[in-house]
Design goal:
Shape: globular
Strand content: under 5%
Number of domains: 1
Order of helices and strands: HHHHHHHHHHHHHHHHHHHH
Structural class: mainly alpha
Largest sheet: none
């Protein structure tokens, strides 16, 4: 009998295409921090263009619907943010165009990845964060200046000013705060904290001893970044995640006993923090509090603007105008290092509401992985203008996009399953999914065979 060739389904050739595209985009912006580069550096244009092209190419490998809540909310944010942009200022037009292209491309693709692709993304983020620990000692001990340098530490001629490179208060100001390949301590802290959460919830699907080592490495990266706000947040998230997983494994424990144990852990943590009162006092007196968290003090003046500006803001890049009008904090640093206040100024109440609804959408629909990532991004955005740094903007987009398909995708095959059944062996998954035992790639077996 002659063999007749049949064309395989297009997806059979590209089962990992979207996961690889997301990993490629995240890796690009982690290893080449475009925001920290000199304005004349061609990588500032090449890296975003390459990321968007790869993401769009991956999108066209499969057909998916565009009727998604996360895309609608993201579109509302971008419309408000760019509605009143000044078309004569080329830097603002380019900056807004880059944000539109990157955010839409990442959310579009990451929101339609399958379980195997999300596993690939989670492992890649953890590896990228762990690699930073190899770079940090070289940066702090051998290099005369940061690998890339943050914009706050760059002079008018592009030179790095050592006196502006922040010192790490956790080491008594003996060393500088590490920046790694991200060009600033706070995006590095966001990456390390995200990796810690992925390890905690076992999104990487590795044995506990491997995850314990990875967690220790990522915690070291977080400490070298010097972000005390991120360390406190990571401590709180760790307690909650460990407590929640422990409760799942001990269903016989009463809710009252679980809440009591969790409260005891929180109190113990507060006692530990209280004993380090000098560090807490230094934090409250540092720029992390007075400048970043203190930015919320500008809300009252921003709400006193004309109603159009209150609703949709002044447009991308308009924060400089609000500094001139005295509506933003005047502590000497003309930068809004707080995503919520920045969006209130430039995108208005509707822009802030769009971001909060994006977070709420992922929190309400997502599993422990999605919820933990969103909490990390939402918390870090209080001390970081997350959507201003392209490396942190990618993490933001992945976090809100992953919440799109939790608890909603149905299993269409071994590569498309999502939820608990996706983590099982294909033959076991067939049993879990209602007895559909005819699994592609495995011999068909009927229920009577058992």
């Amino acid at each position: 009998m002659a063999y007749q060739w049949q064309r395989p389904a297009p997806q059979a050739f590209r089962p990992w295409s979207r996961g690889i595209a997301v990993v490629f985009a995240v890796s690009l912006f982690v290893l080449v921090p475009t925001t920290a580069l000199d304005p004349d550096n061609p990588a500032r244009d090449v890296v975003p263009i390459a990321a968007v092209l790869v993401l769009l190419a991956a999108w066209f490998t499969r057909r998916d619907t565009l009727a998604r809540v996360d895309l609608a909310l993201l579109a509302a944010l971008l419309v408000c943010w760019g509605l009143f942009i000044d078309p004569e200022i080329r830097a603002e037009v380019t900056g807004m165009a880059v944000r539109i292209a990157l955010l839409v491309a990442v959310v579009l693709v990451a929101g339609t990845t399958n379980a195997s692709e999300r596993l690939l993304v989670a492992r890649s983020v953890v590896v990228l964060a762990m690699v930073q620990l190899l770079i940090v000692p070289v940066e702090l001990l051998l290099l005369p200046e940061p690998l890339y340098g943050s914009p706050a530490a760059i002079g008018s001629f592009g030179e790095v000013l050592p006196e502006l490179v922040p010192a790490n208060a956790l080491f008594g100001d003996a060393i500088s705060r590490a920046q790694g390949t991200l060009g600033h301590p706070l995006p590095l802290a966001l990456l390390a904290w995200s990796g810690m959460v992925l390890v905690l919830v076992n999104a990487v699907k590795r044995p506990i001893h491997e995850r314990a080592v990875a967690f220790g490495v990522l915690a070291a990266v977080l400490v070298f970044s010097g972000s005390r706000s991120a360390i406190l947040g990571a401590f709180a998230v760790t307690i909650v995640v460990v407590g929640a997983r422990w409760r799942q494994r001990r269903p016989s424990i009463s809710p009252f006993a679980f809440k009591t144990a969790l409260a005891a852990l929180v109190c113990a943590g507060l006692v530990v923090i209280g004993t380090a009162h000098s560090q807490v006092a230094a934090l409250l007196d540092s720029g992390s509090w007075t400048h970043r968290v203190g930015a919320f003090g500008s809300i009252e003046s921003l709400l006193n603007r004309p109603w159009r500006e209150v609703l949709v803001g002044g447009g991308f890049g308009s924060s400089s105008d609000y500094y001139e009008r005295g509506m933003l904090q005047t502590d000497g640093l003309r930068a809004v290092d707080n995503m919520y206040v920045l969006l209130l100024a430039e995108a208005g109440l509707l822009g802030v509401a769009s971001v909060l609804l994006l977070f709420a959408w992922a929190l309400l629909r997502g599993d422990l992985l999605n919820r933990s990532l969103v909490v990390v991004v939402a918390g870090m955005s209080i001390v970081l203008d997350t959507l201003a740094w392209q490396s942190s903007m990618i993490v933001f987009a992945v976090a809100v996009a992953f919440g799109q398909h939790s608890r909603t995708l149905t299993a269409k095959g071994p590569m498309e399953a999502s939820g608990p059944a996706a983590d099982l062996d294909p033959r076991k998954r067939a049993t879990v999914n209602g007895g559909a035992l005819d699994v592609p790639g495995l011999p068909a077996r009927s229920p009577e065979a058992h």
